[in-house]
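Sequence in, structure out.
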Amino acid sequence: MTNYKKQILNCLLDKYERSKSFTGDNKIGQSFSVKLIKLFPKYGDEAEYDLYKSISEAALELERCEYIYLSKKKNGVIDSAALNTNKLNDIYAFISRIPKSDTNERLLHLLNIYANKNEVLAGYCQSQIERIRNNKKAEYFDGDLTEYEYILKAVSEIFDIPDETYIRDFSVKVFGDSKVFERVKRKVTRLLFQYGDFPQEETILEDLNIIKNPGHVYIKGCGIITISGQIIDLSVLNGDIAISSDLLKSIEKIEITGSRMITIENLTTFNHFSRPGTFALYLGGYHNSHRRNFIRKIYEQNPQISYYHYGDIDAGGFCILLHLREKTGICFIPYQMDTNTLRQHSAYTKPLTDNDKKRLKSLMDSEFSDTIKYMLEHNCKLEQEVLDIE
């Protein structure tokens, strides 16, 4: 079979599969045609006689098979080709193309299987079912059903990783192959960011304990830590230290020598932070299990101090604080995440995106309602990393 035959038939089938005739919603008969000169721009070039001859022969052969109807000009040159919809099964078989109806049936089967696995998949699968019913392409599906199921399976398993796990080990656990997850990782993170509740796409895997290298907790300020009998007084250090996730298990004691602890969402803010009487921890977005366990250990040994969280004044920042409270059981107090801060630093605010507005409206019943009203009215949000903590 020549490539020209396949190109002609694929073009016509694409038009058919995008039509109301395909979905059964059309009340009158439709025809599906393409001008050869549009499909093959050099078809009408007199200097390309061999090309003209090959395309014409391919089209005439398809006509003899009754797969298409041809319209010709007065000089005999073929003008357009139209699909014979009575021969669809034969045409699909001729070019070894899987009918879209068969693909959609398999997609719907997969989506119904995974729809109840977790909250992210519930939202995603329902959205894709509606898209397919409206004859739209499922998001993150590029024609490979095997790869698509890998994506769904990864998202179904990724919330159940209790400890930091290397990417290749997660891939072996879920797929029995160390390289599969690497192939679908980008689509998985995009899906999680679009349908989940994460502040940054770049840190999603780390937030869910899927890592390339061991994670670290960055801390500084008024605290004394005892690790395997070794005592480290952070207050005498001019800067922060990073403790690896493996080393966290060896921490025996954490004594906060100041009056409060503060978790900081942004690394830039953490790096510039310096305030007497305060122990600081870089949170880096949604905390994973190691940061969460470390924070709980601090609280267990230092229940008398105050606990604050400092983050962006946007939907992501509010959600991170709520998530931090929920998962640690500690009533963190928001620090400079209010309307007054927005007013004082209005020169640094950014306009809200449509997604920002949607997420903020979903939080209107929270303690941040007054700040959210101000943000929606003034179309603003504030990334705290552009400011110095006062």
